[in-house]
Amino acid sequence: MVVVPALSIFILLLLLFNHGYITTAFAADSPACKPTCGSLQLRYPFGTGPGCGSPIFQPYITCAFINNQQQLLLLTTHTGSYPITSISYASQTLILTPPSMSNCTSMQPSSSNFGLDWASPFQLGPSTFILLSCQPPTSSLTLKPSGIPVCDPSYSYLCASIYTCPSVVGLGLPLFPPTNTCCAYSPGNLDAKGELDLNGLECASFTSVVSLGDYPTDPVRWEYGVALKYSHGGLDSGIVDTKCKSCEMSDGVCGYRVDDHDQFLCVCKNGYNTSSDCHNNYTPDSELLWGSGACDDHLPVNIWKMWSALVAGLMIIMA
Ligand SMILES: *[C@@H]1O[C@H](CO)[C@@H](O)[C@H](O)[C@H]1NC(C)=O
Ligand SMILES: *[C@@H]1O[C@H](CO)[C@@H](O)[C@H](O)[C@H]1NC(C)=O
User: Fold this and answer.
1) Pairing state of beta strands 40-41 and 61-66?
2) Where is the signal peptide (predicted)?
């Protein structure tokens, strides 16, 4: 008869464990914020989900599984979601590869405009748009209503090079098409809606070049992508300089409280969050059931194991 209460305590603990009441406090194996997404190293202000990175960036950035296994960091705007292929934290620049963008191996009509949200912390960076298969002559292409010419003739060599790619046939063009249907849009700009309006410009597609490398005349070897600059604004730069640096140096990930975006959090590997860094002694939070000690990755798990051993032992004695 005495076995029944002991058994029910055990089952209760098991239920709590399975329903995540205990695992959220003891998330030893999967910290809420991850330091990588796919092959990208993530640092502030980028994060893998709500509560991670900067609250200003979070609405635009997600780490998504593509085809169930490959992870991609995506930037989402009102025009679509774009894979981020690299981030330079030193120059605060990132490179996107919009799926609708053409390159030398593959050209196709762009099904949607590329655009950024004006309110977001991202702006166009140092890459060059090349508009493809436009209504000739592109020299008369102007922005409405300002009448500013779009194409920079001093970059026309880019057009001559990109039109040597056999994939131009994907745009319905003949091989080696006349370059008056191509236009290097430099400096590139987005319209009032924050878009590269291909329809309005009467161009079928676009590509964007980050770097020609050592091969200005060999478009096969160019680096394609849209470079963006990002800024995290004056408001939280103090946090970046002080708290976040020491958090990252202690192997933590910078984040913020989901219920209060102004509160900085350092998310540590052992599943704990602190307002300072992961080397600091952890002071128990009311949300946590049991907690003590500091940076030991396995401590919470050990406590859990101890408890289950205790309960199991109790059951055996009682039986
Ligand atoms: C720690 O912070 C992250 C991000 O804000 C949150 O998702 C997670 O639930 C927090 N963990 C605990 C134990 O409070
Ligand atoms: C060219 O574009 C295609 C289709 O978007 C993509 O699959 C491929 O990886 C790109 N190649 C290069 C070298 O960027």
Assistant:
1) unpaired
2) 1-27
- For residue range 74-133, list pLDDT tens digits in order: 999 999 999 999 999 999 999 999 999 999 999 999 989 999 999 999 999 999 999 999
Question: Are 117 and 194 within 8 A, CB to CB?
Answer: yes
Determine contact, residues 244/254, Cβ cutoff 8 Å.
yes
Closest CA to 39 of 72, 64, 62: 72
- What backbone phi and psi angles, to 5 degrees, belong to 10? -65, -45
> Taking the C-alpha atoms of 285, 289, 292 and 294 in order, what is their torsion angle to the nearest 10 degrees?
-70
pLDDT in tens, 151-171: 999 999 999 999 999 999 999
145 has a pLDDT exceeding 90:
no
The DSSP 8-state label assigned to residue 52 in this structure reads B
Q: Are 184 and 155 in contact (CB under 8 A)?
A: yes
**Cβ of 271 less than 6 Å from ligand 1:** yes
**Centre of ligand 2 from the C-alpha of residue 3, in Å:** 65
Residue 4, amino acid: V
> From the CA of 267, how far away is ligand 1's center (Å)?
7
**Residue 136: how many CB atoms within 10 A of its CB?**
16
Ligand 1 atom 9: the closest Cα is on which residue? 32
| Other beta carbons less than 10 A from residue 113's beta carbon | 22
Residue 285, amino acid: D
